[in-house]
Amino acid sequence: MIHMLALILSCQLAGEAVSRALSLPVPGPVLGMALLFALMLASPRLAEAVRPVGEGILRHLSLLFVPAGVGVVGHLRLLGENAAAIGVALVGSTVLAIAVGALVFRAVARLTEGKPDA
């Protein structure tokens, strides 16, 4: 278990190093996850060895949100001062995301209209 956890964290570290070294706009953990995915595709035995550790992490995922919650509580005053701007940004981005999703759906429906299912 320790070896597989070390592998997961090493992939995250490698992704972070590549992201920073190349000044990529992609977060390091995302690159690390892609690296781990590639490694698991290359070796099914590795995938089976990583599975129990990954499932254990996912089972206790809520614990990873504790630091974020502490950060929010630590900055309540700042959040209160900017509540209107934060509210406008949240509502605006939600409406925009729904609108873009609907427009993309309509465009894809138009493109595939009348075509048989594959």
Structural topology:
Blueprint: H1 2-21, H2 28-42, H3 44-59, H4 66-74, H5 76-81, H6 83-112
Helix pairs in contact: 1-2, 2-3
Question: Can you walk me through this structure?
Answer:
Helix 1 (2-21) crosses helix 2 (28-42). The relative contact order is 0.07. The longest helix is centred in the C-terminal third of the chain and has 30 residues, at 83-112. This protein has two domains: 1-59; 66-118. The protein has helices at residues 2-21, 28-42, 44-59, 66-74, 76-81, 83-112. The protein is mostly helical and 118 residues long. The model has no long low-confidence stretch (mean pLDDT 92).
Notable features of this structure?
118 residues, mainly alpha, 2 domains, 0% strand, extended
